[in-house]
Structures are given as structure tokens and as C-alpha cells.
Amino acid sequence: MWFKITSQPDKKYSIYNQFTLKVQQKRVTDRCELVVSFDGTTKVLNKSLEELINFPPEQFNWINCNGELHRYKYMPPHFKQDLSNLFPVLSNKLKPEFNILFDKPTFANRYPRYKNILETFYNDHLNTDAFRSIIPISQDGYLQINHTHVQRIPQDSNKLLFGKEAHGGEPKRDLLKLGPYKPSPHNNVHFFFIYHKPDREKAVKKLYEYFTKGYWSVNYNNENVRLFPDMTTYIKQPFHIETIDSIAFDSVESAVDTVDKAIRSKNRLPDTVYMAIYISPIPKLDKNQENLKIYYRIKEILLQHSITSQVVYKENIFNKNFNFFLPNIEIAILAKLSGIPWRLNRSLTFELIVGIGAFYSMTRKSRYLGSAFCFNNEGIFENFDCFLSNDTDTLAGSIRKAVLKFLVDHEHADRLIIHFYKDISKKEMTPIVDTLHKLGLSIPVIIVTINKTESKGLLAFDTSDKNLMPYSGTIVKVGRYEYLLFNNTRYNENSVLKEKDYHFPIKISFKSSKPGLLENPELIEELTDQVYQFSRMYWKNVSQQSLPVTICYPEMVAEIFPHFESDTIPPFGQKNLWFL
Q1: Rounded CA separation 298/350 (Å)
Q2: Residue 364 DSSP SS3
Q3: N or C: which end of the chain has fewer CB within 10 A?
């Protein structure tokens, strides 16, 4: 159901609140249940099809047909009798055609807003005699969760290991204080810049200064203070730069050819690891698709020559808050150099965790999987591959390769855990189980489905707190093997949260190749705890994430890979975190 909101900020379109009602049977309680979800807002163009002269019909997706929604492709012909009552729903594809800006994401706490919207909807449309004459819902309103359906992950699951096995909990604070868990194992590391020639005097020199001397600023007392240390201090990595071998291109258009020729002719020392720092003159949100391709081509060329890279956008270097960018840039550099910024505080066990995420490529109109993204239970990355989503045999083969490598390193495996971005089908599951049988392994396969988008269909509110978000690690049972996991930074009543820290829960569910295995509540708790902990292994920045890296990392690869010219990721790229 869509309801037009009262205030409309733009005459070009109308904004609607979207709601969904769903009836289900004994999923959370012992009765029938009505799920009410607020699905956000959508925009509908205020120009009808009658007014859109000579407009390409393939651009349309959903159409508001006088109060009914239909896909344009399958819209019943009788609606065309009155084109003045047919209004296109504004997809991201359509918005630029009418000079309508994309929605800017808001990082404000959504819990109070969603609760207010849901309660208003309930009181206006459901809490009435008319509605109860159709569906006799309880007079008690929304479900008050029984404490038997709520658990909390142990507090020590927040603990991470940093330098010299020191314990910490927040990378933002503890990495600076305790140092990285493991500096890069490569002692001979040569950095070199890739940049646009006009940027040498300002952007390149400024970034070099930040890496070698740290970030300094003048405070209120007119004193020069260091707000962020040099790279050697922060990630224990000396910054040795090849000034002669750095690559400068004359124009954006010549960047790819210049880099390609320079890398091919580059003199490289034996037993030396090379890393490129690419200062991109192209804004991250540039609308020119040809300009955006330059980033991907340079990434791919470097990977083909076993060189990892870190992009820094030129406009960010002059941001007055660049000291907050530097921690994220430098931990990514450390991870790409095979260092370990921090790891989970867990004892090593003989289980392999494989993460499978996806990204829909608008350019190739297909869904790519970043697959066989392998980790041990300490959260340490091992390797990955990437391919099309409909290629189930390659998926199984990729997992087979991962299992074999794991067996070589650890001699045996107790179980295989797969973190999947959606409900896995029997068609996808069968080749995986068959592959293990062919290897002579009778180990159980446990599928943990982790919704890629945060759960909005089902929410829970902590009404004892004004901000309404449940504590981090709260687990709410919403089905037989289905749970909401609140994964945020509200660890205790004294936690100080910023706007971006108010994450909605993720929804997780479980399947197993071995009947009865999931009846063990301790196993469910252990697997849920693992999902929770793996969200703390995100090395792209120091902030807490709601999704585990087993889903985030594969999705990041699957987003970039379709832009490569090659159909395969170079072997070097399968063992390196170049995509961070």
C-alpha cells in the first residue's frame, strides 16, 4: 500500500510512503501473525504518459495505473484507454531524464521515525472495527517480545587482538594505541605514485607529507599539533617512495595508456613488493561513465603485473577533515600488503568459512558473485574467485578448490560454513554437497543466509531507551531457524553513538546438510556469534559495520569485476585485498 505524504517538496513528483502487510502462521508466536512493514518512500512523476511525447517506452518500469501498480512491459492494454491517469514511478534510471536528483542517504537514527510511522499506520488503518471485521487482530497492538525469544551475544565477542596480542574493542581507538596485530610480512616494499601532472605540486606533495610526517594542524591556541601520525608509526610500514619511477599522465584521456606503457617497461627489483598510490583527479561520483572506467582499467593493469594499489581522490586530500580519512586509507594499505590490522580473539579451529555475496552489474545486466571468499575462524582472509551468478558448477568447483587448499594447510576440516547473501536453492546446494562427497568428505555443510540489505520487514525496538535501538549483539528469534541480529556499537548504557552508528538489524537464517544438526541451540548461538564477530574484520575503514566481511568483501569484488576487460581475475588478485 502506498500513501501520498502531506508535504511535497517538488512539483515534478509526488512522494509516497510504502507499506506491506503479510499474513504468516506461527513463526514468532503460537498464533496467526500479521507482519506490518514500512518500506520507505518512493517517487512518482507528476507527468502522465499522455504528456511524455516521444519518450522511449523501454525506460519505464513500474507505472501507477490510477491506483494500481503494474510493470509497463506487462501492463493490461485497457489502462491505455486513459493515458492521462498513467504516471511513471521514478527509478534511478528515469530520474536523470527529468533532472531529478538521486536520494541522498541519511545517517540519522531511523528507529524513532520508523516507530512513529508504523504506529500512525496501525492506528489509522488497522486498529479499527472495519479492519478487525476482515482480520481479527489483537487489541494489544504490536507484539511485546517474550524474553525467551531474546538473547544477547557474550560481551567478550567484541574483543579483538592488536599488536603483541593486546586486547582491544574499537579499531578507531585501539589501533593507534596498540598497533597492528601483524605488520606487513614484506620487508622490501616500494611505493610509487600515479597522478595527473598538474597535481604534482599540491596533491602529491601534500599526501607524501601526510604519509611521512603525519597530519598537522593549528589549534585554537595557535599551536601546531599532530592530529594523525605518520605511516611508520600507525601501521609500522616505512613509506619508501620511488620518485623517479612514479607515473604522471598528461590528461585524463591518456591516463590508461600512459600507465600501461610505464608498468610494462618498469624496472623491478627482485624480492620486492610494489604498491601504487593512485591520486585520482576524477571525483568519486563523476557522472561521466568513461571517466569512471579509468579507475577500473588502472586497477586491472596493475593486478596483471602483480601490483596492488590504493586510490586517493584528489578532492579529499584538501578536505579539512582529511585526518579522519587517513586511518581508513592506511589500514587498507596494510591489508593489501598482507598485514593484519587486527584479528578476532578466537582459538583456531578446523573449519572453513566461505562467503558468497553478489552485485548486479547495470553495465552487463547480470548478477556477479564474489565467490569462495575464504576465511579461517580467526577471520583471516585466504583467497577468493568471482563469476556469474547462474554458474552453479563453477561455484561448486570454486568451493572444492578452497576446501582442498584448506586441507593441505590444516590436514582436516570439521565442517564447511557458507555465508550466503540470499536463500540458497536446492540447485545451488546440490553441486556443493556432491563435490564434498567426491572428495571423500562427510563433513556437514551449514548454510548461513545473511540478508544483504538491513532488515526493514521485521524490526524490534528497545522501548526502555529514547533512541530505541537494542543493544549490540541482541538476537531476536523470528522463525524456526530465523533471527534478527542487532549489530551496532551500542555495547552498554555508556556507549557514545554517532548518527551513522544506528544500524538496523540484519536477518539471518540457517540450513544444514545434516538433519537435526540445527536443533542444537548452542550451535545456533555459536554460528550467530561468528556472523557478529566477522563484521568486526572489515579492513576498509575503522568504523563498525553491520554486515560481516564474508558478505561485504565478495560484494565489493563483484561490483568491480564486471568493469574489467578480462573474464578472469589474475592469480595475484585472488590472494590480495586489492579491492578495499
Answers
A1: 38
A2: coil
A3: N
Question: Nine-digit cell at 540?
Answer: 576498509
For residue 37, the cross-strand partners are 20
Residues 513 and 392 in one domain: yes
Dump strand ranges (E) for 132-272.
150-152, 160-161, 167-168, 189-196, 215-218, 224-228, 247-249
With beta carbons less than 8 A apart as the criterion, state whether 70 and 108 touch: no
How many C-alpha atoms does 413 have within 13 Å on its Cβ side? Answer: 26
CA angle 536, 540, 544 (to 5 degrees): 35
pLDDT over 80 (residue 445): yes
Strand partners, 70: 63
- pLDDT, tens only, 184-200: 999 999 999 999 999 99
Distance CA 211, CA 231 (A): 5
Give the 3-state secondary structure percentages of the chain, helix then strand then coil, rounded to 5.
35, 25, 40
Same domain, 447 and 527: yes
Each residue's pLDDT tens digit, 276-319:
999 999 887 776 778 888 989 999 999 999 999 999 999 999 99
Specify the 3-state DSSP secondary structure of 57.
helix
Strand partners, 371: 385
CA–CA gap between residue 85 and residue 112 (Å, rounded): 36
Based on the domain organization, do 257 and 332 belong to the same domain?
Answer: yes
Q: What is the pLDDT of residues 474-513, one digit of tens each?
A: 999 888 899 999 988 888 888 888 888 888 999 999 988 8
Contacts of 174 (CB under 8 A, 6+ apart): 160, 162, 166, 168, 342
Tell me the sheet residues that pair with 310: 277
The grid cell for 86 is 498513467
Q: Which three cell numbers mark 564?
A: 574489467
Quote the domain boundaries for residue 547.
348-454+505-574
Strands ordered across the beta sheet of 506-512: 150-152, 474-477, 482-485, 506-512, 445-450, 415-420, 351-361, 366-375, 381-388
Counting the structural domains of the chain, the total is 2
CATH of the domain at 395: 3.30.420.10
Residues 422 and 330 in one domain: no
Contacts of 137 (CB under 8 A, 6+ apart): 34, 126, 131
10 Å Cβ neighbour count for 567? 9
Q: Are residues 400 and 520 in the same domain?
A: yes
Grid cell locating 357? 555475496
* Residue 481, helix vs strand vs coil: coil
Residue 561: φ, ψ to 5°: -55, -40
Q: What is the pTM of this model?
A: 0.83
Amino acid identity of 378?
E
